[in-house]
Amino acid sequence: MECLRRSYIYERKLAAMGISSSVSYDDLSDEEPESESQPVATPTATTAVPVAATSSSRPSSSSSGSKKPGTPQETSNGASKPNANANANATGPPQVDIDNLEEFVLKPAPQGHTVKCRITRDKKGMDRGVFPTYYLHMERDDGKKVFLLAGRKRKKSTTSNYLVSVDATDLSRGGESYVGKLRSNMLGTKFTIFSRGVAPDSNMAMPDASNMREELAAVCYETNVLGFKGPRKMTVIIPGMTLDHERVAIKPRNDSESLLSRWQHRNMDSILELHNKTPVWNDDTQSYVLNFHGRVTQASVKNFQIVHDNDPEYIVMQFGRVAEDVFTCDYNYPLCAVQAFSVALSSFDGKLACE
């Protein structure tokens, strides 16, 4: 009953802002894509969507070992890698309980189902041209859209800092609906995704770290100091999964224990390294393309698919443009909604050394 009451309050608040928790995108016009820093080709009628129109190669992964489809592969401490049994194109509604929204957005996607979502970017208002608000809605089989998350960049931060909330009307760090944040380095090339909780150097941190924040993911964009044009190259580092399909809690007490530091020093215990899938050159469109199976319709340098090197056909996440301010964001096990949404937010952020 409490969940229904909160849901009703959200609906009223969203309606007052001109936003619906069940959004219909049928009325959205297909406007021209916003200008990108590199040329992209016009999408054809096929499901392969252009990413960018020049050569590139993906950064290599240090992960090794072969993996048969459908066989979980364990890391040295028992954390399992993405399972190919969770078919990225599986049909049917996710078998999950969404009555508790905060629990749902932090829970890994159910194995065997793709959680299909859309992100809308709201630029309306006095300062939303510079600080737009982003909304994540889950698409249901009946055509309705269910609100999951909202995110917005904080205005007075030295680096890019996005707050993520389960309440579209409350994007404050002190609010009850705050579930995480995304923070970048000075160049905007490396991002860390945190859950709700106190920092390790806080006076409020408990000795057993029970109230400390977790690192849910890290995103690293390859720098482009020579000015070469081509598809973006990104690495996503996430905590591993236990054999019980629970996410390993990563609670660094200092920078050397962070996901980014461990990845940079090749300390891969309990963590997984993912990459954007390498686009394929298409002579007809003179561009690099990816097959989004109809979920992406407009060319953009921001379009990407995330995979593990041991199973590149299993799409852990995919993101791409369908209208000027509308993007699909689909994710599979082992990602949760907060991880997928935050990775998508990192792609919107300006990157001085990558463009």
Automatic annotation (TrEMBL):
Which residues does the UniProt record annotate as the domain Tubby C-terminal? 106-349
- The signal peptide annotation in the UniProt record is none
Which InterPro entries did the record assign? Tubby-like_C, Tubby_C, Tubby_C_CS
| One cellular component term from this protein's GO annotations in UniProt | cilium
Q: Does the keyword Cytoplasm apply?
A: yes
Q: Is Flavoprotein one of the keywords UniProt gives this record?
A: no
Q: Region (Disordered) spans which residues?
A: 23-96
PROSITE patterns xrefs: TUB_1
Q: Write out the GO biological process terms.
A: protein localization to cilium
Compositionally biased intervals (Low complexity): 36-72
Q: Which UniProt keywords apply?
A: Cytoplasm
The compartments listed are:
Cytoplasm
Compositionally biased region (Polar residues) = 73-82
**Which Gene3D superfamilies does the UniProt record give?**
Tubby Protein, Chain A (3.20.90.10)
- Which family, according to UniProt? Belongs to the TUB family.
Query: What is the name of the protein in this document?
Result: Tubby protein homolog isoform X3
What's the source species for this entry? Branchiostoma belcheri
- By which gene is this protein encoded? LOC109476528
